[in-house]
Amino acid sequence: MNFYGKNFNQDKLFVEIRNSLELAYWVASDNDHFVESFPEMIDKNILRNIYSNSSKLEGFLNKTTKKINNLEGQHKKCATLLAKYTEFCIEEFSIKLKSFEPDEEKFSRIINADLRFRSKFNKYFLKTDVELYRSRSYSQLSYALLAMLDFTAYSANELDSILAENKRKDVIEYLRSAEKTLSIGNRLMKSNNVSTRDFSIAYSGKTGKSIEDYYDLQVEFNMILKEFFFIQRDLYEQLKDDLLDLSEIKLYDYETQKYYGKMNIVGYKIGKLILEEINIDIPNFEIFSPLTIKDQLDFIKVK
Q: How far apart are the first and last CA of the chain?
Protein backbone atom coordinates (compact mmCIF):
# COMPACT_ATOMS: atom_id res chain seq x y z
CA MET A 1 0.00 0.00 0.00
CA ASN A 2 1.24 3.53 -0.67
CA PHE A 3 1.09 4.48 3.04
CA TYR A 4 3.44 1.73 4.22
CA GLY A 5 6.82 2.64 5.68
CA LYS A 6 5.94 5.55 7.96
CA ASN A 7 4.84 3.68 11.09
CA PHE A 8 5.68 -0.03 11.38
CA ASN A 9 3.20 -0.76 14.16
CA GLN A 10 0.38 0.80 12.14
CA ASP A 11 1.54 -1.09 9.06
CA LYS A 12 1.52 -4.41 10.91
CA LEU A 13 -1.91 -3.84 12.43
CA PHE A 14 -3.27 -2.86 9.02
CA VAL A 15 -1.78 -6.03 7.46
CA GLU A 16 -3.49 -8.07 10.18
CA ILE A 17 -6.86 -6.35 9.67
CA ARG A 18 -6.70 -6.41 5.89
CA ASN A 19 -5.82 -10.10 5.69
CA SER A 20 -8.43 -10.96 8.33
CA LEU A 21 -11.10 -9.18 6.28
CA GLU A 22 -9.98 -10.82 3.06
CA LEU A 23 -9.87 -14.26 4.69
CA ALA A 24 -13.41 -13.64 5.97
CA TYR A 25 -14.47 -12.68 2.44
CA TRP A 26 -13.08 -15.93 0.98
CA VAL A 27 -14.81 -18.06 3.61
CA ALA A 28 -18.16 -16.38 2.88
CA SER A 29 -17.56 -16.57 -0.87
CA ASP A 30 -16.78 -20.28 -0.59
CA ASN A 31 -19.94 -20.91 1.45
CA ASP A 32 -22.04 -19.08 -1.14
CA HIS A 33 -20.33 -20.77 -4.09
CA PHE A 34 -20.96 -24.22 -2.64
CA VAL A 35 -24.59 -23.60 -1.69
CA GLU A 36 -25.49 -21.93 -5.01
CA SER A 37 -23.56 -24.21 -7.38
CA PHE A 38 -23.54 -27.62 -5.68
CA PRO A 39 -26.80 -27.98 -3.69
CA GLU A 40 -26.92 -31.68 -4.57
CA MET A 41 -23.79 -32.25 -2.46
CA ILE A 42 -25.26 -30.78 0.73
CA ASP A 43 -26.11 -33.32 3.41
CA LYS A 44 -26.83 -32.82 7.12
CA ASN A 45 -23.16 -32.77 8.11
CA ILE A 46 -22.19 -30.27 5.42
CA LEU A 47 -25.18 -28.06 6.20
CA ARG A 48 -24.16 -28.04 9.86
CA ASN A 49 -20.62 -27.05 8.86
CA ILE A 50 -21.92 -24.28 6.60
CA TYR A 51 -23.91 -22.78 9.48
CA SER A 52 -20.91 -23.28 11.76
CA ASN A 53 -18.74 -21.34 9.30
CA SER A 54 -21.26 -18.51 9.28
CA SER A 55 -21.42 -18.36 13.07
CA LYS A 56 -17.63 -18.36 13.49
CA LEU A 57 -17.32 -15.82 10.69
CA GLU A 58 -19.60 -13.36 12.48
CA GLY A 59 -17.47 -13.45 15.61
CA PHE A 60 -14.20 -13.24 13.69
CA LEU A 61 -15.45 -10.29 11.67
CA ASN A 62 -16.68 -8.38 14.73
CA LYS A 63 -13.36 -8.91 16.48
CA THR A 64 -11.48 -7.69 13.41
CA THR A 65 -13.51 -4.55 12.77
CA LYS A 66 -13.09 -3.41 16.39
CA LYS A 67 -9.33 -3.30 15.84
CA ILE A 68 -9.78 -0.62 13.14
CA ASN A 69 -10.28 1.90 15.97
CA ASN A 70 -6.58 1.47 16.78
CA LEU A 71 -5.54 2.62 13.32
CA GLU A 72 -4.93 6.21 12.29
CA GLY A 73 -4.93 8.33 9.14
CA GLN A 74 -4.72 6.55 5.79
CA HIS A 75 -4.39 3.18 7.47
CA LYS A 76 -7.76 3.68 9.13
CA LYS A 77 -9.52 5.14 6.07
CA CYS A 78 -8.38 2.27 3.88
CA ALA A 79 -9.27 -0.41 6.44
CA THR A 80 -12.69 1.15 7.04
CA LEU A 81 -13.44 1.14 3.31
CA LEU A 82 -12.39 -2.52 3.01
CA ALA A 83 -14.38 -3.49 6.10
CA LYS A 84 -17.60 -1.94 4.78
CA TYR A 85 -17.22 -3.73 1.46
CA THR A 86 -16.40 -7.04 3.15
CA GLU A 87 -19.40 -6.74 5.48
CA PHE A 88 -21.65 -5.99 2.51
CA CYS A 89 -20.40 -9.05 0.60
CA ILE A 90 -20.69 -11.36 3.59
CA GLU A 91 -24.26 -10.18 4.14
CA GLU A 92 -25.06 -10.80 0.47
CA PHE A 93 -23.45 -14.24 0.61
CA SER A 94 -25.25 -15.17 3.83
CA ILE A 95 -27.28 -18.35 3.64
CA LYS A 96 -29.86 -16.57 5.79
CA LEU A 97 -30.68 -14.32 2.83
CA LYS A 98 -31.41 -17.11 0.33
CA SER A 99 -34.81 -16.06 -0.95
CA PHE A 100 -36.98 -15.84 -4.01
CA GLU A 101 -35.14 -12.75 -5.21
CA PRO A 102 -34.07 -13.22 -8.86
CA ASP A 103 -30.40 -14.18 -9.11
CA GLU A 104 -29.84 -11.40 -11.63
CA GLU A 105 -30.84 -8.72 -9.10
CA LYS A 106 -28.49 -10.04 -6.41
CA PHE A 107 -25.70 -10.53 -8.95
CA SER A 108 -26.09 -7.02 -10.34
CA ARG A 109 -26.14 -5.49 -6.85
CA ILE A 110 -22.88 -7.24 -5.89
CA ILE A 111 -21.17 -6.31 -9.16
CA ASN A 112 -22.07 -2.63 -8.87
CA ALA A 113 -20.93 -2.56 -5.25
CA ASP A 114 -17.63 -4.07 -6.33
CA LEU A 115 -17.14 -1.39 -8.98
CA ARG A 116 -17.86 1.39 -6.49
CA PHE A 117 -15.50 -0.13 -3.94
CA ARG A 118 -12.57 -0.52 -6.35
CA SER A 119 -12.97 3.01 -7.70
CA LYS A 120 -12.13 4.21 -4.16
CA PHE A 121 -9.78 1.45 -2.99
CA ASN A 122 -7.36 1.48 -5.92
CA LYS A 123 -5.92 4.86 -4.90
CA TYR A 124 -4.20 3.20 -1.93
CA PHE A 125 -2.04 0.93 -4.10
CA LEU A 126 1.40 1.78 -5.40
CA LYS A 127 1.53 2.11 -9.19
CA THR A 128 4.00 -0.79 -9.32
CA ASP A 129 1.87 -3.16 -7.19
CA VAL A 130 0.46 -6.23 -8.93
CA GLU A 131 -2.61 -5.87 -6.70
CA LEU A 132 -3.49 -2.58 -8.38
CA TYR A 133 -3.59 -4.32 -11.75
CA ARG A 134 -5.39 -7.31 -10.31
CA SER A 135 -8.01 -4.97 -8.86
CA ARG A 136 -8.36 -3.14 -12.18
CA SER A 137 -8.79 -6.46 -13.95
CA TYR A 138 -11.55 -7.33 -11.45
CA SER A 139 -13.33 -4.11 -12.45
CA GLN A 140 -13.07 -5.05 -16.11
CA LEU A 141 -14.45 -8.48 -15.21
CA SER A 142 -17.35 -6.76 -13.44
CA TYR A 143 -18.19 -4.81 -16.58
CA ALA A 144 -18.01 -8.07 -18.53
CA LEU A 145 -20.39 -9.74 -16.06
CA LEU A 146 -22.89 -6.90 -16.41
CA ALA A 147 -22.67 -7.27 -20.19
CA MET A 148 -23.29 -11.01 -19.77
CA LEU A 149 -26.52 -10.27 -17.90
CA ASP A 150 -27.65 -8.01 -20.75
CA PHE A 151 -26.61 -10.60 -23.34
CA THR A 152 -28.71 -13.25 -21.61
CA ALA A 153 -31.73 -10.94 -21.44
CA TYR A 154 -31.48 -9.87 -25.09
CA SER A 155 -30.89 -13.44 -26.30
CA ALA A 156 -34.32 -14.43 -25.02
CA ASN A 157 -35.98 -12.32 -27.73
CA GLU A 158 -35.12 -12.77 -31.41
CA LEU A 159 -36.06 -9.14 -32.04
CA ASP A 160 -33.15 -8.12 -29.79
CA SER A 161 -30.56 -10.23 -31.63
CA ILE A 162 -28.48 -7.18 -32.69
CA LEU A 163 -28.39 -5.93 -29.11
CA ALA A 164 -27.41 -9.39 -27.93
CA GLU A 165 -24.56 -9.54 -30.43
CA ASN A 166 -23.28 -6.13 -29.33
CA LYS A 167 -23.26 -7.28 -25.72
CA ARG A 168 -21.46 -10.49 -26.68
CA LYS A 169 -18.72 -8.38 -28.25
CA ASP A 170 -18.62 -6.15 -25.17
CA VAL A 171 -18.05 -9.20 -22.96
CA ILE A 172 -15.12 -10.30 -25.11
CA GLU A 173 -13.51 -6.86 -25.13
CA TYR A 174 -13.83 -6.40 -21.35
CA LEU A 175 -12.32 -9.83 -20.72
CA ARG A 176 -9.51 -9.22 -23.20
CA SER A 177 -8.79 -5.95 -21.40
CA ALA A 178 -8.81 -7.76 -18.04
CA GLU A 179 -6.26 -10.27 -19.35
CA LYS A 180 -3.97 -7.51 -20.60
CA THR A 181 -4.23 -5.57 -17.34
CA LEU A 182 -3.40 -8.62 -15.24
CA SER A 183 -0.44 -9.40 -17.52
CA ILE A 184 1.02 -5.95 -16.81
CA GLY A 185 0.76 -6.65 -13.09
CA ASN A 186 2.44 -10.03 -13.51
CA ARG A 187 5.39 -8.42 -15.30
CA LEU A 188 5.75 -5.82 -12.54
CA MET A 189 5.56 -8.56 -9.92
CA LYS A 190 8.68 -10.16 -11.39
CA SER A 191 10.61 -6.90 -11.36
CA ASN A 192 10.02 -5.60 -7.81
CA ASN A 193 9.16 -6.76 -4.29
CA VAL A 194 6.04 -4.60 -3.79
CA SER A 195 3.72 -7.61 -4.06
CA THR A 196 5.38 -9.33 -1.08
CA ARG A 197 5.32 -6.29 1.22
CA ASP A 198 2.53 -7.67 3.43
CA PHE A 199 4.56 -10.79 4.19
CA SER A 200 7.69 -8.76 4.90
CA ILE A 201 5.74 -6.69 7.45
CA ALA A 202 4.11 -9.76 9.00
CA TYR A 203 7.26 -11.92 9.03
CA SER A 204 8.15 -13.49 12.38
CA GLY A 205 10.33 -16.43 11.35
CA LYS A 206 8.33 -18.72 13.64
CA THR A 207 6.12 -20.55 11.12
CA GLY A 208 8.77 -21.88 8.78
CA LYS A 209 7.14 -20.03 5.89
CA SER A 210 9.24 -17.88 3.59
CA ILE A 211 8.61 -14.93 1.33
CA GLU A 212 8.84 -17.39 -1.58
CA ASP A 213 5.84 -19.31 -0.21
CA TYR A 214 3.80 -16.12 -0.17
CA TYR A 215 5.03 -15.11 -3.62
CA ASP A 216 4.13 -18.53 -5.04
CA LEU A 217 0.57 -18.22 -3.73
CA GLN A 218 0.26 -14.81 -5.37
CA VAL A 219 1.50 -16.27 -8.67
CA GLU A 220 -0.92 -19.19 -8.35
CA PHE A 221 -3.86 -16.87 -7.73
CA ASN A 222 -2.96 -14.76 -10.75
CA MET A 223 -2.72 -17.86 -12.94
CA ILE A 224 -6.18 -19.00 -11.83
CA LEU A 225 -7.61 -15.55 -12.54
CA LYS A 226 -5.94 -15.44 -15.95
CA GLU A 227 -7.34 -18.86 -16.86
CA PHE A 228 -10.77 -17.78 -15.63
CA PHE A 229 -10.69 -14.74 -17.91
CA PHE A 230 -9.65 -16.92 -20.85
CA ILE A 231 -12.38 -19.52 -20.27
CA GLN A 232 -15.06 -16.83 -20.15
CA ARG A 233 -13.74 -15.02 -23.22
CA ASP A 234 -13.44 -18.27 -25.18
CA LEU A 235 -17.03 -19.18 -24.30
CA TYR A 236 -18.41 -15.90 -25.65
CA GLU A 237 -16.27 -16.14 -28.77
CA GLN A 238 -17.72 -19.60 -29.40
CA LEU A 239 -21.28 -18.40 -28.80
CA LYS A 240 -21.21 -16.56 -32.13
CA ASP A 241 -23.54 -18.21 -34.63
CA ASP A 242 -24.50 -20.91 -32.08
CA LEU A 243 -21.25 -22.82 -32.49
CA LEU A 244 -21.69 -24.65 -29.16
CA ASP A 245 -24.00 -27.53 -28.33
CA LEU A 246 -25.50 -28.06 -24.87
CA SER A 247 -22.80 -30.46 -23.65
CA GLU A 248 -20.06 -27.97 -24.56
CA ILE A 249 -21.84 -25.16 -22.72
CA LYS A 250 -22.14 -27.41 -19.66
CA LEU A 251 -18.41 -28.08 -19.85
CA TYR A 252 -17.68 -24.34 -19.91
CA ASP A 253 -19.97 -23.92 -16.90
CA TYR A 254 -18.09 -26.68 -15.09
CA GLU A 255 -14.76 -24.98 -15.80
CA THR A 256 -16.16 -21.65 -14.61
CA GLN A 257 -17.29 -23.13 -11.30
CA LYS A 258 -13.93 -24.87 -10.92
CA TYR A 259 -12.01 -21.61 -11.20
CA TYR A 260 -14.35 -19.83 -8.79
CA GLY A 261 -13.61 -22.63 -6.33
CA LYS A 262 -9.85 -22.41 -6.88
CA MET A 263 -9.90 -18.66 -6.24
CA ASN A 264 -11.67 -19.28 -2.93
CA ILE A 265 -9.09 -21.89 -1.94
CA VAL A 266 -5.98 -19.89 -2.81
CA GLY A 267 -7.41 -16.57 -1.58
CA TYR A 268 -8.06 -18.22 1.78
CA LYS A 269 -4.53 -19.70 1.85
CA ILE A 270 -2.96 -16.28 1.27
CA GLY A 271 -4.82 -14.67 4.17
CA LYS A 272 -4.20 -17.67 6.44
CA LEU A 273 -0.45 -17.63 5.75
CA ILE A 274 -0.17 -13.96 6.71
CA LEU A 275 -2.31 -14.30 9.85
CA GLU A 276 -0.41 -17.34 11.05
CA GLU A 277 2.83 -15.42 10.56
CA ILE A 278 1.46 -12.68 12.86
CA ASN A 279 0.22 -15.39 15.26
CA ILE A 280 -3.45 -14.48 14.95
CA ASP A 281 -5.96 -17.05 16.18
CA ILE A 282 -8.05 -18.18 13.19
CA PRO A 283 -11.31 -20.10 13.70
CA ASN A 284 -11.37 -23.61 12.27
CA PHE A 285 -13.23 -22.69 9.07
CA GLU A 286 -14.09 -25.36 6.53
CA ILE A 287 -13.48 -24.58 2.85
CA PHE A 288 -15.84 -26.63 0.67
CA SER A 289 -14.46 -25.96 -2.81
CA PRO A 290 -11.92 -28.84 -2.67
CA LEU A 291 -14.93 -31.21 -2.56
CA THR A 292 -16.16 -29.88 -5.91
CA ILE A 293 -13.01 -29.76 -8.04
CA LYS A 294 -12.54 -32.81 -10.23
CA ASP A 295 -10.50 -33.58 -13.29
CA GLN A 296 -12.12 -32.48 -16.55
CA LEU A 297 -12.09 -36.10 -17.77
CA ASP A 298 -14.07 -37.14 -14.68
CA PHE A 299 -16.67 -34.50 -15.54
CA ILE A 300 -16.96 -35.84 -19.09
CA LYS A 301 -17.31 -39.43 -17.84
CA VAL A 302 -20.07 -38.43 -15.41
CA LYS A 303 -21.95 -36.49 -18.08
A: 46
pLDDT digits (tens, 9 = 90+) for 150-198: 998 998 888 888 999 999 999 999 999 999 999 999 999 988 888 899 9
Let me know: does 19 contact 271? Beta carbons within 8 Å: yes
pLDDT digits (tens, 9 = 90+) for 242-291: 666 677 778 888 888 999 999 999 999 999 999 999 999 999 999 999 99
Cα distances from 130 to residues 125, 229, 238, 293, in angstroms, run 9, 17, 30, 27
Measured in residues, the chain has a length of 303
Domain residue extents for the chain: 8-302
> CA 280, CA 115: separation in Å to the nearest integer?
31
Distances (CA, A) of 78 to 71, 74, 177: 10, 6, 27
Which is it for the CA torsion 202, 205, 209, 215, positive or negative? positive
Residue 78 CB neighbour total at 10 angstroms: 23
